[in-house]
# Entry
Amino acid sequence: MWNFLKKSLLSNIAFMALIVFVGLGSYKMVSQALSLRGEYEDTETKIQGLLKKKTELEAYAAELESRQAIEREAKERLNLKLPGEEVVVVVPGKKPEATKQTASGFERTKSFFNSVFSW
# Structure
């Protein structure tokens, strides 16, 4: 019986097809596992970033428990002031225009030769 299966073209084709299907299935599973591993690593990176941000926000919230911090934030963000305080606003001025005009190339050359050949 085994000799017949070994020599039969139809059984050899069936075994080859079975090997191809098993190989393709294995390839798909491995590629899917690799893509899931990449997604896992990306998710872990995002989680670490969010945990860091959470600790920063918790520290900021704890800092805002004091009255001085609340006053500072109200002054910086909301432009509020306490009674009796004066607010000074500094407005940047315009850039001064250049008062001295630069000499043209001909005038510079003329002044160079006048200074060299002046008696």
Q: What stands out?
A: Residues 9-63 form the longest helix (55 residues). The helical segments are 2-7, 9-63, 67-78, 105-116.
